[in-house]
Amino acid sequence: MAQNKSHQLAFTMYKIIGADGKEYGPISTDQLRQWVKEGRINAQTKVRPDGVEEWQLLGTFPEFSAEFPPSIAPTTAGEIPCKTSALAITSLVLGILGLFSCGITAFFGLISGIIALVKIKNSQGRLAGSGLAIAGIVTSGIFLLMIPVFAAMLLPALAKAKERAQTITCINNVKQLSLAVKMYSLDAGDKFPSGTNWCDLIQTNVGMTTVYQCPANPGLRCGFAYNSKLADKKEGEVNSQTVMFFESGAGWNASGGPELFAEHKHSRTKIVIGYADGSVVELPRSQLDSLRWEP
């Protein structure tokens, strides 16, 4: 039976559509095999046996399958080649990266996933990857929902960093004010400036007027007050640990004592103090009662 079938196939005649679009034949099986070897026709050549009305690709005929390597064999009838959507892959990657970007990339991952799903649906099977797109959308959505959580975690750290930067600026400013007082006293017989106009008296020694300002009270011309107990005192008469400058919101040329702390607008739990010897410290408000005000 197998010999009879092979014998029948050997004498089957075919018609083909040439590269020029014209119909040729009838052509024998052996002749077709010869033309395949010569490269004149290939697996994509349209062929139909005698007595058959429908044209088929040569590579789909079992009797010619041995003539073509599997890697170049054509798809079967009705099969549409497809590829995975790059947008779907991008969506999933951006969604996962949302973990490391505090959800920022997740926004773009969500958009990419939605667009990928629409394109896959409209591709009539030419695009695959709907599962990846859905995974990207879900992952991105989760991290977008977590943005408020990330913000709640970051805001306290940012506030603390801002507060620390303000403190450093205040410390540097008080150090420069203390140096300006020292320079003034050298020209005034070792006397501290008076309390009524101390800002004006040391201004030539300060340099930039921003030294008078406190970052927590940017609208004030001066964010520090001067201990009025030091006014016109000689340096030798003053204990080095006596308060000289402290943060206050009382304004330009403000001088006095602890009562001026009430004018301070900081929300911090600490405050910057400058001593008579020029040293500057940051103290908790709980220690303010232990400060020395009398020379």
Which labels suit this protein?
alpha+beta; Dna Ligase, domain 1; 5-stranded mixed sheet; disordered N terminus
Describe the structure.
The protein is of the alpha+beta class and 295 residues long. The chain has three domains: 2-72, Dna Ligase, domain 1 (2-Layer Sandwich), CATH 3.30.1490; 83-145; 163-290. It contains eight helices and eleven strands. It has helices at 2-10, 29-38, 86-97, 104-122, 130-145, 147-187, 198-201, 203-206; strands at 13-17, 23-28, 46-49, 56-57, 83-84, 127-128, 224-227, 243-247, 255-256, 270-275, 280-284. A hairpin with a 5-residue loop joins strand 1 and strand 2. Helix 3 packs antiparallel against helix 4 (104-122) and helix 3 packs parallel to helix 5 (130-145). It is rod-shaped, with a radius of gyration of 44 Å. The relative contact order is 0.07. The model is unreliable at 1-9 and 72-79 (pLDDT under 50).
Portion in strands: 5-15%
Radius of gyration: 44 Å
Unreliable segments (pLDDT under 50, ≥5 consecutive)?
1-9, 72-79
Largest sheet: 5 strands, mixed
Structural class: alpha+beta
Mean pLDDT: 84
Measure the end-to-end span.
125 Å
Number of strands: 11
- By oligomeric state, this entry counts as single chain
Number of helix segments? 8
Q: How much helix is in the residues?
A: 25-40%
Order of helices and strands: HEEHEEEHHEHHHHEEEEE
Strand order of the largest sheet: 9-7-8-10-11
Shape label: rod-shaped
Task: Provide the number of structural domains.
Answer: 3
